[in-house]
Amino acid sequence: MWANERILVADCGDEVALWLSRYILGSDKNIRLGYYLTTVVSRRKVVNTAISKRGYSQFRDKDLGAYSDLSGYMMMAESSVADLATRVEGDKKYISASRFRGNFVVRGSNPYEEDTWDWVKIGDSTIFRNFKPCTRYRQLDEAIRPVMGQSPVLGINLGLYTPGIVKVGDAVYVNCD
Fold this sequence. Notes:
Layout: E1 10-11, H1 14-25, E2 34-35, E3 73-77, H2 78-87, E4 104-106, E5 117-122, E6 126-138, H3 145-148, E7 153-162, E8 172-176
Parallel strand pairs: 3-4
Antiparallel strand pairs: 1-2, 3-7, 5-6, 5-8, 6-7
């Protein structure tokens, strides 16, 4: 189960389950590890998600991640996280890009500029499309709030269009909507 949604997986077995349960819970039961086999198990469908009802026309079935809330890829700008840190009271050491678990953190853009990126190319050939803001931190302007609701956002969810190899330090090219 993931967020009350059944997901078919290959169970990694009793030995792994026992080790995880003891390590995480200090107990001999309750944790299982499943492996999502894309060649065996069909993917979740967009029609079954709340997002499909909110008008994101670029969102495709294959953009849905197996275990993620929505997408397997999330991008944010370092400047957006830095801007967030200026708005939070107290100890700033806990405000970092790693706290938001993005797959890609980019440098050199203005805060929240990533919201406007439609297509994203990383390195020589890997191409993604922005299909939705990622619900994480700040409220959106009134124009998009009817679609997103009151959920705060930071970063963008991406769908993979052209697979490739991505490395730290690769150039990032964007096409704004």
